[in-house]
Amino acid sequence: MRVFLTGSTGFIGFQVARELLDAGHQVLGLTRSDEGERSLLELGAEPHRGNIEDLDSLRKGAENCDAIIHTAFDHDFARFVENCQKDSRVIAALGAVLEGSARPLLITSGVAMGSSGPGQLADEDYFDPANPHPRTASELAGQALSQRGVNVVVLRLSQIHNPVKQGLVTYLIDLARQKGVSAYVGEGHEHWSAAHLVDTARLYRLALEKHQPGARYHASAEPRIAFRDIAQVIGEGLGVPTVSLSNDEAAAHFGWMAGFAGHDMSAASDKTMARLGWQPKGPGLLDDLRALFGK
Length: 295
Fold this sequence. Notes:
Low-confidence stretches: none
Mean pLDDT: 96
Number of helices: 12
Number of strands: 12
Strand content: 15-25%
Largest sheet: 7 strands, parallel
Helix content: 40-55%
Distance between the termini: 42 Å
């Protein structure tokens, strides 16, 4: 298939592009820079100049492709709500190109969208449209397209990692360096889920090739990693103390990250594995963290 890929030069998107090309697909990759164009050409993909602010550039890229994979997202988390709303507009624009066809649109969300309550493992088949989480906007945009007959598939991400980057955990590392302590909230019993970058890229390809319209899939190779264990490995790696904070202390310490640090983001992926034949093989999150620190 010829696939229009947004975020094609990003951490996840570039690996998705490599995975698609290795499987014999063609990739038209969205990029906004000369450097991005060179990277895509060297990989064997075709660059398409544009960005997620320019909806016309997105429509033009999508017009002559067999499928769209949307991995781009503005990761300025200080403006998270605004950026989630922007993502919903991007999804609407991409989906409009596909109306009246069976061509798939794979969009990206977060595993927290599948949780039915605090501490509950997120489930692929669960979605609450009234969820106050800002990322709900992405799935609502996809749902609206599905109701108009567009073939929408949702990929929900956990903490996607390799020894270089680890999703939100990367921000925790930066914060621990700045503050001189690696912190968790209360007893640190909240859990996060994670998946290796290479496994995640393979999941996108499998979802492209084997999906059911309207399905949701979880990139969660490790369903439950205690937040305290993540903080401990960071503290050991940086050589700083690992400390517990009260809720009030956490708000001041974590800043914008406080909305994530004290919350459970665990997620099952049994249905994803069964439905797509996805079998994660990469190292775990804590192993990649130790590799980052040379441990």
